Amino acid sequence: MMLALNVGLALLIVSLAVWTVFARDTFAAAVGFIAFGLLLTLVWVQLHGVDVALTEAAIGGGLTGALLIGASARLRPTEAASRGERAGPFTVTLAALLACAVSVALVVCVFTLPDPAPTLAAEVAVNITSTGVGNPITAVLLAFRAMDTLLEAIVLLFALIGVWSLAPSSAWGGRPGPLHHADANGMLAYLARVLPPIGVVAGIYIFWVGADHPGGKFQGATILAAMWLLVIMAGLADTPPISRTWLRSVLVAGPLVFVGIGFVGVVAAGAFLAYPAGLAKPLILVIEAALLPTLALTLALLLAGAPQRAERSRKFAPLPQKSARSAFCAARPCSQCPPWSRAS
To answer: Does residue 87 register a pLDDT over 60?
Structure first.
């Protein structure tokens, strides 16, 4: 039974991957990529890689898929004009040959790997208990590969700065993304009121148990970012201006704490990012707690995009008086007005 399930899952993944590559519509390809990521999540669960499965569902299928859908929406105006264009026979043949050459090279590399492959698993298994962390994934990422994890957080921050650099000069320092409007009594607003408390509890729980069980800061931060974006899409809140001091402080707090603990290791343990004996787990928890809000805010702002609106206060103008308000509101329903301008 499990063999049939595994074979069917493998065939479905390969078929979906081929369909995603050949889909000419960018939105359809993005949806296919998301489905591909969710199927890969099932594969990792089947391989007992629960941590990898959570990361694939949150980052691979979730965050990356949302970014691709946003990109496909921006490409809609130009995609229709280029839909009728077809590559010539020479271009198609060259692309096919290049793809085949890359595939053959990958196959050769896989089959020429030494058997058994070089590994540090034995050394890690001997020393992992000194970290005091029950989850081996967390122990490896924050003890044996702490430098990689630090660089990943810094790379995300630089990616966000790169997205912000696409903003026009008139909007620099302003609010990312458009101002969303939604029916205050609609399903989206209802979900934005019901799901965030559940999502926040789930995200914090996944973060907290990550030290000893599958989970961690990246998975928890993705859930927290998704809840915040849901509230923004429902029009119940707005993205903060990127010039705010508190926002920039949260963005750099996680990496700064990480680097600070690294220098503590230089003094107390003789190496950068080395932990003093008996303090490995507390310091790992401090690093993860500092990175959680940084990653949640970074991921949410990456999806929000570049600043599009000049900074202004949500209370920039008083509501009209009663008589003027009545005339104003008669021209449009309340659902078309931003939440901060609706009458109480």
So the answer is: yes
Cα separation, 276 vs 265, whole angstroms: 7
User: DSSP labels for 25-60?
Assistant: SHHHHHHHHHHHHHHHHHHHHHTT-HHHHHHIIIII
Q: Tell me how far CA of residue 138 lies from CA of 61, 93, 119, 134, 165, in angstroms.
A: 21, 46, 18, 8, 33
Which residues lie closer than 8 Å to 127 by C-beta, 6 or more apart?
none
- The whole-angstrom separation of Cα 183 and Cα 337 is 10
What are the residues whose beta carbons fall under 8 Å from the beta carbon of 63, sequence distance 6 or more? Answer: 222, 225, 299, 302, 303
Tell me the backbone φ, ψ of residue 198, rounded to 5 degrees.
-65, -45
Is 303 in contact with 239 (CB distance < 8 Å)?
A: no
Q: CB under 8 Å to 142, separation ≥6 — which residues?
A: 133, 149, 284, 287, 288
Bridge pairing between strands 307-309 and 175-176:
antiparallel
Q: Is the pLDDT of residue 90 over 80?
A: yes
Residue 175 burial class via C-beta count within 10 angstroms: exposed 0-12, middle 13-18, buried 19 and up: buried
The dihedrals phi and psi of 307, each to the nearest 5 degrees, come to -60, 135
pTM of the predicted structure, to 2 decimals? 0.77
Residues 6+ apart with CB under 8 A from 344: none
Handedness of CA 113, 118, 122, 123 (dihedral sign): negative
Distance in angstroms (rounded) separating the CA atoms of residues 218 and 135: 14
- With the C-alpha atoms ordered 136, 137, 139, 143, is the resulting torsion angle positive or negative? positive
Q: Coil, strand or helix: which one is 308? A: strand
- Tokens 């965050």 map to which residue? 63
Contact 314, 175 (CB under 8 A): no
Find which of 29-38, 128-137, 239-248, 304-313 is predicted with most confidence, using mean pLDDT: 239-248
